[in-house]
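Q: What structure does this chain adopt?
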Amino acid sequence: MTIALPKLPYEQDALEPHVSARTLSFHYGKHHRGYVDKLNKLIDGTSYESLSLEDIIATARQNGDIDILNNASQVWNHTFLWASMAPSGATQPNGQIKEMIDEAFGDLERFRQSFRKAALSHFGSGWIWLVQDGTSLRIITTGNADSPVGTLLTPLMTLDVWEHAYYLDYQNNRADYTDSFLEQLINWDFVAANIVNVAKHRVA
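A:
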């Protein structure tokens, strides 16, 4: 099957002033599209051609097909990134996701501090993730194109810290970019929808 470039869930100017239409036109229209186009060329006529995107990632990781893995992961990561943001991102999570944040980090502000620290301490290009690990939440970072896809961790949301994600709007100020994401853009409905309900086993 041909891997398609998914439609953005909002207009390219919908995230302004936090992410400009100009940034999205390059980030989505050039970078994301470029990964899709290159992946389709790489898998054309191969056994990967009939696989879903997630199965391409898992199989390429197992086979050590790094070029396919990198491009497939970047296609998946960017699609997940667009869904992680909303034009009027809620500033407060509610319900189960709030309870899990409070349990894992103490409160929303301490979650933001932990996520911000991870984003600013990550060297070079990569991704910052909120993931579910069993019944708990964790913040992890991955380098370059890597992601939790195909692991025992469930991704709930992500932030792209490759420079192409923010340089036109924030230049080298990753801190302000991260703060805008955390305070103005997170799509908490999407985050909550990704939670996998896992029963807690109590020892009598």
